[in-house]
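Q: I'm writing up a methods section and want to include an example of the input and output format. Could you take the sequence below and give the corresponding predicted structure tokens, formatted cleanly so I can copy it straight into the document?
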Amino acid sequence: MNIDPRVALSTLTNALEEHLSASLNRRGEEDPAVESAFYGVADAFEAYEDALFAATGEVTPLDLYEEEGDDEDDFDDEEDEEDEEDEEDEEDEEDEEDEEDEDEGDFDEEAEEDEPASARGL
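A: Here is the clean output for your methods example:
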């Protein structure tokens, strides 16, 4: 069942207002009301994003903030690690090619030094 994006937007707006209120009335560094409102915003945003996409095929330009200890999105983390490994492999291959090119240049210079002067046209 698809939710009307207007209803989801209203829910998101209300969640943002609740988060603001909880933040302004914070009772310490780890106030449970702020944490609850934080997750309420995240949930409402996801619902809005899903409803918007289902109704229009569009998305927002926003991303949810992921905490470091958050294990909900392990699949994406694994993809990110694979992308980083691929980039490192490409860089290693480029470095090896550069080293080979340098070695070939050294080989030519050494070969010239080994040849007698008469063979080099001197």
